[in-house]
Structure formats: C-alpha cells, structure tokens
Amino acid sequence: MKINKSFAEDIKQIRERMLPTREHSRRIIHWEEEHRIRTGRGKALVFILPTRGCSWALSGSGGCSVCGYLYDNPQHPDPDLMKSSFSEILNNKITQEEEYSIKIFTSGSFLDTNEISLDVQKSILQELQKYPQIKEIVLESRPEYVTEKILQQIASIIDIKKIEIAIGLESSNNQILKNSINKGFFWEDFEKAVKRILDANAKVKAYLLFKPPFVTEYDSIKDIFQSVSKIEKLGIDTISINAVSIHRGTFLSKLFENNHYRPPWLWSIVHLCKELKSKFPKLRIIFDVVAGGNIRGSHNCGECDKELLKQIKKFTLSQDIQAFDEGVHCSCKEEWKGSLFQEKISLNDFYSNT
Amino acid sequence: MHIIQLGEKLRFFQPLSQLGFARILAETRTHITLSPGLISLEKPDGEEGYSAYFNISIPSIDSLNDLPMQLSWILPEKKSEKALSKTSFISIQPFYPHFVPETLSSEDYSNYIEKFLSLHDIHNQIFTLPISMIDSQIVEQVIETECSLYVIVGLSSILKNQRKLSNTLVSLREKISPDIGLYLPGPISPSLHSFLVYSGIDFFDNSLAYYTSKRGHFLTNDRMFSTQNHPMCFCPYCSESPPNLFKHNELILKSSLSRVRYSLEEKTLRTLVEKDVHNKVSFSAALRNYDRLYSTNFRTRTPIISSSPMNCIGEESLNRPIVNEFRNRIKERYIPDSFARIILLLPCSARKPYSFSRSHMLYRSAIKKGGKGIFSILSELIITSPLSVVPRELENIYPAKFYDIPVAGQWSSEEIDLTATLLNEVLKRYNKESIIVNHMHGEGYDDVVQIIKKENSFEIFNTSIDSSPTSQESLLSLSQTLQEVYINKLSPQTKAPSALIKRLRSVADFQYGIGTGNVLFSDNIRTKGKYPRDLQIFREKNQIGSLNSKTGYLSLFPNTAELISSISNNILEFGTDQVKGSNIFAPGCINADERILPNDEIFVVFENNVVATARALVAGKDMNKMTSGIVAEIKKKSKVKK
C-alpha cells in the first residue's frame, strides 16, 4: 500500500470542506524572473495554467498533506482560452536578446491528459517550438503520467533535449511519502519514471520538500541529505528544494494552527546549501523559499531573516557558497540549535506560555 | 561494556527516597544522585548543575549513519568506572508525534515498540512515551524490561487541563516502577519544577534557556521578565558586559532544580509545591485533584517517619497526604486506654510538643488539682487543625510535633467538618459511661462540639465557655469540674497503665498496626535516657528497642519484632532465612505489605521469623513493582539461633 488509509481520509475531509469555496479566474497567470539556466544566468518565464487541478488532489485519496495549490485552480477551466492566451503571452514576452527558461506549472501534472487534453498539450509545445531563444522548458508531472508514449509524442513536436520534466518527489523515504505527505507513489516509481525520461534524452528535475509534517527539522535535514545523495546517483543534475510554506486549507495548516508545527528555520536552509554544495559541487541546487520571513514560511527571529533570504537567493542564482561568506551574526542561531534538538528529542512537542 | 546477567533485570536508577511520586534517583552501582536533575541539550562548558548532557550535533552530509543520539551521564571520574553505564541512547523513535489521532498512530506505535524491544542494549536505551499511549497494553512490555529512562512527549497539550494532567501523571507513575526515570523535554518554567517533580518527573532540560535568551526573556525563579525591565540580578553572568542572558537563565534553571532536590532530601517538598502551585491556576487545581481524587496514591508514598518542619500555610495543607494519613491512622489505630472515663478536649498550642507550651503546663497543673490519681482515668485529646485530633499519647510523633499553622481564630467549614468527623470516630472507642470535659474556647471549637453533641450521648461539661482556656477563671473551672466528676462519680484505677506505657502502646499501634502496643508493652517495661536523648526501652534486663526522641517513633530489635510479626502491617516477606550485606534487594522481596510507607521501620520475615529490621526506601506497593535495586536498608539483623 502506497497510502495510509486513515491518513488519506483525514486529508480528504479537510480538502472536501475547502474545495467548494474555490473560485478562480480562468486566465493564465505568468511572470518573469531572474533564473539560473544550465548555461548561465538568464530569464525564466513562468506560466501557471488554469487547469482543473491536480488529479491526485482531486482524487478520493485527498492529495498531499501540504498542498493547497488546488484551491487556486478554477472549477471550470476553459481550454480554448488557455491555448490562445498562451501563444499571445509568449509572443509579447520573448525578446531576441535573452535566453529563456520556460516553466509551465499547472499545480498538477502537465502530462496528465485528464488535466490537460492531448490537444492542448500539443498546441502549447508547438508554440514553444517556434522560439530558438528558449533553451529550457520545464514541465511538471507526477511520475505515473510520464509514459514512453507521451515522451515520444513530445519528441515528435519539439527537440526533447530542451525538455526538463520536474517531478515532485519530496523525499526518497517511502515512509515519509506515505505517512507524512500522502504522496501516493514511492521512490521506486520515481526511479522508473526518471529512467524513462533519461532514456528519451530529456532531463529531469527533482523537487524535494524540506520539513514535511510530523518530521522534525533535525530529521528532515537528514532526509534531504539522504534524498539528494540517492537522486544524484540517478544522474539527475538539478534538484529544487522547497522549504515548506503553510498553505491554507491543508492538513499541515491545521497542525500549524494547533501549535504542532513550526516552519523551517532559515539557518537550516543555509546549513543545507553549504553542506550539499560542498559535497556535490556539480549539482544544481535550487532553494526555493516561499513566504520566507513570514510566519507561515521559513523564518528565523525576524531580525536576520531578510539578510539570510538574500544570501539564499544569491546562492541559488550563483551556485556559489561564497554567497554565505558574509556571515550573519544573530543570537537566534543559538535558539535554532536548541529548538532543533528539543524538537527532535520531544518529537514536535511544542510548549507555549509555560 | 557491562554484561547483564540473564534473568537479572538491572536498571540504571536506584531510588534512594520517596515523597509522593517524587523520588531521589541515583545511579545503581555508585549511588551518585542524579535526579531531580537538569539535562543539557549540548555538552555544557561546565558540568556543575547538570545530571547529563546530550551529544547531538547538527546533521552533516558525511555523518548520516552516525551514532544515535547519546546522553552522557555526569558521574565523577573516579566512580564512573563502577557505574552500570555512562551513556544512554535514543536509537529509535516513533514516526508519528503524540498529537496525531490514535487511528493513525497506533500501528506505527506498535511497530516502534516491537523494534524497541528487539534492541540488544535495551538497558541503555531511552524509550519515547507519548502520553496518549499510557493506557495501551503494548507499553507494558517495555515496562517489564530493564529500560530505565522514558521521554514523556505530549504533556504540552494537557498542561492547561488540570483534570487530564493530574489523571495522566498519576496513572503514568502508578503504572511504572519507581526505578524508572521520566524525562520531560521542552521549555518548562522553573516555577513548575516542584509540582512536576512531586508528580514523578525526574529530569528536565535547559531548552528554556535557548528559547528565552534570544527573545529577550529574563528568568527568575517564578516569573519571566523582559530584558529591558527586570529585577536586578547580581550573578556573575549579569555582571558581564553585555550580560550573558543564556548563562543567567541556565543558572536559574539549575538553581531551581537544586532547590527542589534539596527540599526533597529534607522532606519538605510538599510545602514547596504548595507555595509554587500558586504561580499557575491549572497546577493549583491539579494539586487539589491529587489530594481529593488521588489521595491514596500519594498517601501511600509519603513518609510518616520524619523530623522536618511541616508548614501548613494554605488551604492545600488541609488535605496533605501526610495529614490524611495521620487522620486515617488515628481513626483506625488509636485505641484509648480501657480505664479512661474522662475525655478532656483541649485546644492546641503554637509550641510543640504541646506539653512544652505554657498553656498546656497550666492545664496540667489544673488537672492535677482534680485529685490524686486522676490521670489514670483521664484521656486527653488535643483538637487542632489540620490534624483534627491529637491524643496526648501521640503528641510527640511526626507530624503532631512538627506542624505549624497560621492561627487567626476562624475555622473554615471544611476544617470544622473534618475535625468533628474524626472526633466522632475516636469517641466511639471510649467506654459509653465516659464523660467529656470540654476546655476549649472560640467559635471553631464550639462548632465542633456542637456537632459531636448531636451524635453522642456523652455528658459534656464546658469549662472554658466565657473566657480563654488559660484564664484563671477557666483553669479554676477545669479543676473544680474534674474534682466534682472524679470524686463524686469515679474512683482512681490502680491497675491502669502508666502514662509512659500508654504512650508506648499508642505509638506502637500507630506505627506497626493495631494490637501491637498491648503485645509489646506491659508492666515489666523500664526505660532509660532523658530527653533529648532517645528513650531506651528494656523488658526485664534486655533492651527491646528505643523511642527516637526526634521523630517520636519506635524502633525494635528483631527478636522483639517477632512478637508482633503476625499482626504488624510493616512486614516484608523475604526469600531466604539469612540476610547478607546491609541492604534488602528487590529480587529477594517476595511480598511487601502495601501499607508500608517509605522510611518506615519494617520487619524482614522468612517463614514467620523476623530475620532483620530495616528501613524502607520506597513504599511497600513500589517494592513489589521493583525488579532490581535496593528496597530497604537493614537496621539490625537477627542473631543466628544456635
């Protein structure tokens, strides 16, 4: 069993209470950002496609315990509008001088034909194929949708070497996948999908989740190290680590509201970056800190957050641990240590006002 | 590496004393005291004030398969070689934390326990116990092993729920043996230490120092202040510039626990707890729960042989375990002398024992004027709060000689009720022809007398109605009343036992169980030694025991104890006919009477022979739970019979 029934049931209940409230525009959201492309610095153009949302999250298993992206998807998507506005935005944004990485997010799986019909998939890829400045195309998908058939389909439309399929693995530890995240697949499924992608000459990016529910920060640091080591052995060159930010309407959010969860410390992230980069100098390590400094995102004491976030950002772009050379001296580093050990010993037993 | 012998489940801790659920735990082999103690989350600069520290570091990528979390005990170097072990480990933990619903965690938790039980060095392992699992059957398998230290998780969620808190802590401690240490990790305010130690928590950590220091919280023993505005502190860390807040806060935690440990050694912990619970509403309520709902659990673990002062300042004092135990024993074990016909009710005095007070000296000379030989038929009961009724014969024992209470003249209705109820019980044991002379004055006393009047047919004479009992008028009235009843109605009893015999009998009954006094002490008893020395007791020419002048309790020689071994409550059934060394160990203890209190004098019995007298370290019911370690210290061994 790849899911824990009782856990999935809890998540589903929370999900079902929130779902009817979602009401979102059927327009594509997009933005441009600085980005580290394999060849160097460049621009990233990010698209959020307004699909009906992740099939796993909509399924009877309730989806992942930490994910609330589904609530940003419209209940009734409009594929035609999606197609036309995609090509229009692309046309407006792409300039001759820059190199681009295109990231297409759906908050679900791009390769899932139930979420994005084959026809829409094709038309988007055909659009992208028109621009030589586009060096990388990142498509997100759960491993079960990465079939040989669909990879051949892609290769028939566009140079597949440009394609990077990003898979949210979150952790290489099946127990965490099952009992903490409710991911619905195991490491072995990821491994097989990776093999299919690499065999097809496309690239893989793996997402890891730093500090999922029930896992202490101490153990999550260990888990990230273990997961990165395992992923690296598969021949993957890019790992994006997401520090948990607490989405409303999720299982995790409930834990947080009951004072059973503290989002990760920025000190831990700095520690992870330094350790990982020195061990795997060739690996591209992207640390994405959503809602950094915020109470629902990774944060420290409030005084040193800004500076550390700046350094983490700088590191992600430069891939150089010199980004952390300018030491930040804040006395909350002691509190971080204490909290890391106490949380580990007491298994997330947090005290307030005692 | 220490090798554990098969069948011998040796635990790391040895309880050296007990008071309620609080115990002093020492390392089993070296007897180095470790609890109540503080654990440092990191190796500290200086070891003073800590019992142990963790050797944890932030995980690095090259040390993933590193050692488990290790806890190093701080034992003096010279002795540490002798110790059972120097380190404990947290090798595995459950996956799910305490707060997940049971539907989710129960399977994971059984897996955890299964794995835990299969660890080869379980005696060195630290067990993680979420409070939600306390009542679970599977935990019992761990309790049976030699695992000595549990980490308690999940207490934070019930800290404000006094009913759950008291219920949980009591059932936890009732379930597990006293030689198992409990470690409560997390930021716990020092003002709660005494209560939690009393509830059976043995170890805390310094995480509060980590949490408070950055946030600018300045700790004192009972409160938290901001660093901008706090009482002056003159500790070396506050004199540094800038002040070292972490070190200061750490010092407060250390000194708080050392204060608790000291009061436990001194046997005044309960007084400290009563003082400290006033810092937090839920803890005050939890303490009241202990005294009302779980009174037996604490009463049966609170020593009655003691000589430390007992200050009864607050309302909580009325229902202290020791007070309840005293009242209980008066009710069940006090038998007035059969010749008693006049029951004299007297008020208490501030000076203890009462006889040494000016007022009681005045009463005594007034009683004497009642007529020669009057003491042979007189039984004096001192009415007091919170002990309710103290017979004259027992005024020298703990706690009667040691309590102190603020007197303002008003009695609460609870005090009146408790006192009248007990007095009624005691009065039932007197000859029905007896009369009561009430020499008490004041509202509370009047109320008590009113209540007993309703339920008894004794004739009552009041001798201190209009003025204070020590006034000339009242004393005269006392003498005259006694004279009248004595001369007109009664006659002196020449066969009545002396005051000394009465006293010894009452103490024996109170201490060893009803009926023991009559067996032990008859006319052929002589004594030697004057206060403040202990009273040596002889029968014919042989010393049979002594009466400790500090505690007021007896201690007997083994051959004398044998006389009462069939009726005494203080019996420990032992496995062989010979005791070796100077201690009784748990494996040798076949069965201990559950009425044995810690620090009691007990009789070690094999096949109806008393082989030794001993001093209990823990309560009888806990002796039966312990599988290793010392349960009692031998006082005197019986001479081997030729």
What does this structure look like?
The complex is a heterodimer of chains A (354) and B (642). Chain A is of the alpha/beta class. Chain A has a single domain (5-345), classed as Aldolase class I (TIM Barrel, Alpha-Beta Barrel). Helix content of chain A is 40%, strand content 17%. Chain A has helices spanning 5-18, 55-58, 79-93, 118-129, 148-157, 174-181, 187-199, 217-233, 251-257, 266-279, 305-318, 332-345, and strands at residues 29-37, 40-48, 100-105, 134-140, 163-170, 203-210, 238-243, 284-289. In chain A, helix 10 (266-279) packs parallel to helix 11. The longest helix of chain A has 17 residues, at 217-233. Chain A is globular. Chain B is globular, with a radius of gyration of 28 Å. The longest helix of chain B has 21 residues, at 245-265. Chain B has 3 domains: 13-265; 334-483, 3-Layer(aba) Sandwich (Rossmann fold), CATH 3.40.50; 499-637, Archaeosine Trna-guanine Transglycosylase, Chain: A, domain 4. Chain B is an alpha/beta fold and 642 residues long. The two termini of chain B are 45 Å apart. In chain B, the strands form 8 sheets. Chain B has a 6-stranded mixed sheet. In chain B, strands 7-6-5-4-11 form a 5-stranded mixed sheet, covered by helices on one side. A 5-stranded mixed sheet of chain B has the order 17-16-15-19-20, with helices on both faces. At the A-B interface, helix 1, helix 6, helix 8, helix 10 and helix 12 of A face helix 2 and helix 6 of B.
